[in-house]
Amino acid sequence: MTIPTTWVGTANEPDSGFPLQSLPYCAFTPAAAPADGPETTPHIGVGIGAFILDLHQLQSNTLLNTLPANIQQACTAPQLNPLLRCGPAAWSALRQRLFDLLRTIEPRANRDTDRQRLVASLMLPMVKAIFHKPVATENYTDFYASRYHAENVGRLFRPDNPLLPNYHWIPIGYHGRASSLVLSGTPIRRPHGQFKLPGDATPTFAPTAQLDYELEVAATIGTGNPLGTPIPIAEAEHHLFGLSLLNDWSARDIQSWEAQPLGPFLGKNFATSLSPWVVPIEALAPYRTPLAPHDPAPLPYLTEPISTLSGFDVTLEVLLCTSNMREHNLPPTPLSTSNLRDLYWSFAQMLTHHTSNGCNLVPGDILASGTVSGPTPGSEGSLLEITRRGTVPIHLTNNETRTFLEDGDEIILRGHCHREGLPRISLGECRGTILPAI
After folding, report:
1. Which fold has domain 9-132?
2. Rounded CA separation 7/19 (Å)
3. Is the separation of the CB atoms in 17 and 425 below 8 Å?
4. 0.90 exceeded by the pTM?
5. Read out DSSP for 47-106?
6. Which of 43, 56, 149, 353 is catalytic?
7. pLDDT by residue (tens digit) across 165-189?
8. β-strand 333-339 against 315-321: which pairing, if any?
9. Calpha distance 337→375 (Å, rounded)
10. Helix H segments across 276-426?
């Protein structure tokens, strides 16, 4: 099989991560834009090689005029929500048009060469871009879809019964805080909270001493559903637009004190970091994979058609860079590697369960996977698991140790897809550095 190439040379490099087959979406402004100029309003773009192609400028130069008017108009918005509302057929049509503009072709006339020069002039190097939130998110739901993570955490608190009875039957989730979703690179302030130290008679209010990260993947909702109208499992994937990296920062001491009986609250809602890239579900089609069979089988409303490839083969990595490492120009320490294919519940099942009671999702909503952990040591998606609730310190490559995150620590999440004979597709990075409490 011949893999189509593009005339954007950097996109054809094996480790580019942004090949023609991906075209992930972002929102950006040029780094050199004047503070009060018109270019301070974000434009939607797609990543191709080392560049961002400006969709607003494509439309302004009539390069999208073969598409319906609603798609053209959506490409001039500062965020993706109008495009999300257009639906799957529109998403595919836009991808095909972008593919046609960027793929390598034999010039038939000067017109083709002129068009290529025009498209090239509408690109900005990624290193010269300031990224913005690509989607306006009204609602954010965090799930608990990794059985391995649930078992690892359960053993810390309930060694004899790590999984609660409902885990095999329900995609467990809680409603997060959309207002504290922040873009990758935004510093994370260490939060205050109430927690109870072992042996103390009363709780304490102080900065968290057990700040943690959670390696997650977020699914962005494309089209929603009317209030009171569930989305059947067979239709669920039609409502999913794309995937992004997500870090659900967690204050474990605050979380463990407040979580009973209503679940996560202040231990979670102070910040959640999102990657600037949304990789379309359509781009990930060659990297689909079945999830492990459920035992027991799910109830009929959550049962996916036989042979459904409901999983994604996405390698996920966590790295830690301390302030000492930055000071001495040392590389970050890898903490873990896991894979999204190891989820117990699929995004389609999460979505169907979410709407099964008639709850309405809206374009731009986020469904997060919950911490993605694997079955082997080195595949844990949080420090809570790696350090066994802070009792087993990890040793970093510069001889520092950690049980939980310290001020100045930067967490870097990365994700990519790769299979033999196919290009590497990157989900980009999701970064956040811890600032001291105030």
Report:
1. SH3 type barrels. (2.30.30)
2. 11
3. yes
4. yes
5. EETTEEEEHHHHHHTTTTTTS-HHHHHHTTSSSSHHHHHH-HHHHHHHHHHHHHHHB---
6. 149
7. 999 999 999 999 999 999 999 999 9
8. antiparallel
9. 11
10. 323-327, 347-355, 383-386
Q: Which residue has the tokens 């930067």?
A: 410
pLDDT digits (tens, 9 = 90+) for 12-46: 999 999 999 999 999 999 998 666 565 689 999 99
The tokens 């900065």 sit on which residue? 207
- Contact call for residues 119 and 53 (beta carbons, < 8 A): yes
Q: Percentage of the chain with pLDDT > 90?
A: 92
| Strand (E) or helix (H) holding 245 | strand 240-247
Where in the chain are the domains? Answer: 9-132, 140-435
In order, the DSSP letters of 363-386 are TT-EEE------SSTT--SSHHHH
**328 among known catalytic residues:** no
- For residues 141, 28, 86, 282, the Cα torsion angle rounded to the nearest 10 degrees is -70
Token pair recorded at residue 411? 């967490």
CATH topology of domain 140-435: Fumarylacetoacetate hydrolase; domain 2 (3.90.850)
